[in-house]
Amino acid sequence: MGVAFVAHCVLNQNSKVGDGAHCAGVFSPIVDVLRAKGWRIEQMPCPELAFAGLNRFWAVREQYDTAAFRRHCARLATAVADVIALRVDQGEDVVLIGVDGSPSMGVTITSSDPQRGGRPEWPDGSPELISGEGIFVEELRRELTSRGIGFPRVVGEAHAIPGYDEATQRAAVESALDG
Amino acid sequence: MKRDQRSFRVALVADQFVNPPRGGVDGVAAAAEAGWGVVQLPADDYPDAVTQRLLFEVAEQADEFSRHGYDLVVVGQRDGLAEALARVGLAVPDAITPESYVALREFLDSRPNPQALRQFGSGAG
């Protein structure tokens, strides 16, 4: 057992970018695994919600990779790192559950398109998905490193990734929790 | 693309209902069944500085939901929440400290349709 730091939208799909909410509120496939294994839940703030608002466009890393958004993420990362540090000091095991494909919360897959911008017209699809971390996750890594805290194990909520399968998602979360 | 499934309903939930003790009320399960999103409030045993940082972020996010007509409620209590919300111009939303899972479900289910849902006619809730 330990503490799972979960992306905001795992508990609140209302924070998602428009057309991005997979369910009404709580994304149960991940919460069910955490409950079954007795892990404590710590919800992280949504980096995009308070910065760009509910009416934000879908965006890739390059569109969010500005000094202002990084300052915003660094502020959030400081708050999250405070709590991670508390839990680590208490000897708790810590896992980070991000959102793969997200420009800010991706932990193994983020989104990238250096040309994207201007009038928001682009074809559906996922050519922007690349290996890597989102901007908030990078800032959290930076903050934890500065405090001498190792980066937690990670797993991504992968609903937005092509080929998503709920059983695979549950297995990935279980694997991350089991270490 | 599948229609957006959000409910436009968000509960600010005290930690004791997000991480309930054995036999306690599971506020996340109740929210999930009722179609509500959850914004977790800081645990009661966090240092003041940590709590204030987290409540600042909660308040900014609540403000965004409120300005867009999402329904907001509070489940449980958290010292400092009222002050944090006041800093962004929000009053404390309707609240419940539920004695039981059933009481929480009844509270959530009894809420009127949020303004945003009436405006956009979307959502699963």
Q: What's this entry about, in short?
A:
Chain A is of the alpha/beta class. Chain A contains seven helices and six strands. A four-stranded parallel beta sheet of chain A has the order 2-1-3-6.
> Helix- and strand-based class of chain B?
alpha/beta
Which geometry of chain B do the CA atoms define?
Answer: globular
Total strand count of chain B, please?
A: 4
Low-confidence stretches of chain B: none
Terminal CA distance of chain A reads 11 Å
Please specify the SSE layout and strand pairing.
The complex is a heterodimer of chains A (179) and B (125).
Chain A: E1 2-6, H1 8-11, H2 28-36, E2 40-43, H3 47-52, H4 61-64, H5 67-89, E3 93-99, E4 109-111, E5 129-131, H6 135-146, E6 153-157, H7 166-178
Parallel strand pairs in A: 1-2, 1-3, 3-6
Antiparallel strand pairs in A: 4-5
Chain B: E1 9-13, H1 15-18, H2 27-34, E2 37-40, H3 48-67, E3 71-75, H4 81-87, E4 95-96, H5 101-109, H6 115-120
Parallel strand pairs in B: 1-2, 1-3, 3-4
Describe the structure.
The complex is a heterodimer of chains A (179) and B (125). With 179 residues, chain A is α/β, with parallel strands linked by helices. Chain A has seven helices and six strands; from the N terminus they run E-H-H-E-H-H-H-E-E-E-H-E-H. Chain B is of the alpha/beta class and 125 residues long. Chain B is built from six helices and four strands. Classes of the chains: A alpha/beta (179), B alpha/beta (125). The interface between A and B is large, with 37 and 41 residues.
What are the key terms here?
heterodimer, A: 179 residues, alpha/beta, 4-stranded parallel sheet, B: 125 residues, 4 strands
